[in-house]
TrEMBL record:
<dbReference type="GO" id="GO:0008734">
    <property type="term" value="F:L-aspartate oxidase activity"/>
</dbReference>
<dbReference type="InterPro" id="IPR005288">
    <property type="entry name" value="NadB"/>
</dbReference>
<protein>
    <recommendedName>
        <fullName>L-aspartate oxidase</fullName>
        <ecNumber>1.4.3.16</ecNumber>
    </recommendedName>
</protein>
<dbReference type="InterPro" id="IPR003953">
    <property type="entry name" value="FAD-dep_OxRdtase_2_FAD-bd"/>
</dbReference>
<keyword id="KW-0274">FAD</keyword>
<feature type="domain" description="FAD-dependent oxidoreductase 2 FAD-binding">
    <location>
        <begin position="98"/>
        <end position="482"/>
    </location>
</feature>
<keyword id="KW-0285">Flavoprotein</keyword>
<dbReference type="GO" id="GO:0009507">
    <property type="term" value="C:chloroplast"/>
</dbReference>
<dbReference type="GO" id="GO:0009435">
    <property type="term" value="P:NAD+ biosynthetic process"/>
</dbReference>
<dbReference type="InterPro" id="IPR037099">
    <property type="entry name" value="Fum_R/Succ_DH_flav-like_C_sf"/>
</dbReference>
<comment type="pathway">
    <text>Cofactor biosynthesis; NAD(+) biosynthesis; iminoaspartate from L-aspartate (oxidase route): step 1/1.</text>
</comment>
<keyword id="KW-0662">Pyridine nucleotide biosynthesis</keyword>
<dbReference type="InterPro" id="IPR036188">
    <property type="entry name" value="FAD/NAD-bd_sf"/>
</dbReference>
<comment type="similarity">
    <text>Belongs to the FAD-dependent oxidoreductase 2 family. NadB subfamily.</text>
</comment>
<dbReference type="Pfam" id="PF00890">
    <property type="entry name" value="FAD_binding_2"/>
</dbReference>
<dbReference type="InterPro" id="IPR015939">
    <property type="entry name" value="Fum_Rdtase/Succ_DH_flav-like_C"/>
</dbReference>
<dbReference type="InterPro" id="IPR027477">
    <property type="entry name" value="Succ_DH/fumarate_Rdtase_cat_sf"/>
</dbReference>
Amino acid sequence: MTTSIAAGSGNLHFRATIYRGQACKQASWVSGIAFQRCIQKDLSCCDILYNFLGQFGVSKFLQIQGCHFSQSPIYENWKTLRTVTASCLRDGSTKYFDFAIIGSGVAGLRYALEVAKHGSVAVITKAEPHESNTNYAQGGVSAVLCPLDSVENHMRDTIVAGAYLCDEETVRVVCTEGPDRIRELIAMGASFDHGEDGNLHLAREGGHSHHRIVHAADMTGREIERALLEAVVNDPNIFMFEHHFAIDLLTSQDGSDTVCHGVDTLNTETQEVVRFISKVTLLASGGAGHIYPTTTNPPVATGDGIAMAHRAQAVISNMEFVQFHPTALADEGLPIRPTKARENAFLITEAVRGDGGILYNLDMERFMPLYDERAELAPRDVVARSIDDQLKKRNEKYVLLDISHKPRERILSHFPNIAAECLQYGLDITHQPIPVVPAAHYMCGGVRAGLEGETNVQGLYVAGEVACTGLHGANRLASNSLLEALVFARRAVLPSIDHKNSSFLDLSASNWWARPVVPMSLGSSAMQKILRRTREMRKELQSIMWDYVGIVRSTTRLKTAEHRIGELEATWEEYLFQQGWEPTMVGLEACEMRNLFCCAKLVVSSALARHESRGLHYTIDFPHLEESKRLPTVIFPCSPVNSTWSSRLLHKPHLC
């Protein structure tokens, strides 16, 4: 792994050459001939229907087959069928699609709805379709929708919050195109809050100079996810694969170019390895919050997309910039403590401070004006460091966020979800302050992307938190994440269609790579030992990251983390292999663990490379901004020599 501060302008943009399959000129896309192949198997019309819903959708299939069906329970529920049978192969272990999308958050679903107009689409999701960071996004989406606001204002706020590391062209594109993306959501049925004047109610959050946050109470992400999922369900070209964990991207080497041909997945319900061969792959798999012990991210956010892309030779950028949300609910401060630990911290949205919430220490002393003239409306990195400083100076576990001075009706209408959650534990936020503590929240770095979501791996596009587009710089401005996902999901569509139309794959493509193996042969005793040790190691890795790679860092602590993570990973891998595990074996928790190790190392490596304090990366050894360092951190593809299990593909790339 080679880490460096990029030379030159620091511009993130580059354009990947479209792969035109020169080495496979005789190949043709499976959807063009799969029908004849299955006819040769002498299947009945209904057998073909079961096998081809995933290839064509019902209407396209009926058009090709010339069949006529009456409305029957099977026909009415065909959407359910197509979530599990999407290939003409009888064993279902390989599935062919024009577009494969990894992730079912706002980026993946918005992209799916557009590319579905041009081909078959597989949406591969690790858990339930709604289980994504999008669903947990409370605050809203920022966009210039008020006459008193402007694109220039939004750009300035974004760049200031990003500590001037943002790519200006990316910022302009996102701030300019954002309003149209919001209008599209509304046209699709997303319902946002309106004011008494009938116009959209625009909130304000930390770092914003104007009211520009479109929201649905404090459940905006959930409402957007609902609207998008509803549209996806009604689209006959989109096929949802639930509980399919993405293992590794399938790549080939065409000279010096790396080309992506799809992804291997593990069906975690059937324990079957399922291979997706696709002309275009979109990574929209979210972030890596669970490299830390306390995170607002759902359990699925284990850095799978970033780690997979890194192993597949994609360039990674700006991983040192981990955003800690200043205000996650501190369970220790609740009148009634939760009976069991949460899988992810409950977020107290930025909008509470934007709506007038005030931060106090446990002596009810307001402290934010001591740190920044913007007080509670300072950007997240400033507020998180300020809270961290208070906690360390006072040796306390949490601070208090008070909104109770606002009218009760206003609090309950703006923050019904937060009010209900707190009330479960004996806390009435209309009368009492909320105990809060910082928690890992968002990765500003990720897979390096150009203005159309393209990566240096041909056929691989990225959107959402997994991507590093240059928008966020060193610190994401509040409510810019959903906006970025919407804009780049749309911008990746046209190049994806062009790539799809110019790509060819041989029918034997599925045999180019050895398949991962489910470790059934190890026996239950060995597997229980592996699972138990893996869970212990996961907690230890998270503890190292929080203690040494947290909100405030130092070179000594980062080097300690680097050493300890390396030792921990080696110990874990040695234990696995002692139990009979082999490098080609896959299991959900083991593969998540290798991804967590990979992402943790990327964060530490990037943090060590930046010799200044900028945005979310604050180090006591280099406490000041350095203009000469105002460049992105870049991690180039890793060498397979002496690499660990977490940093290499389970199979060798195919050579064209």
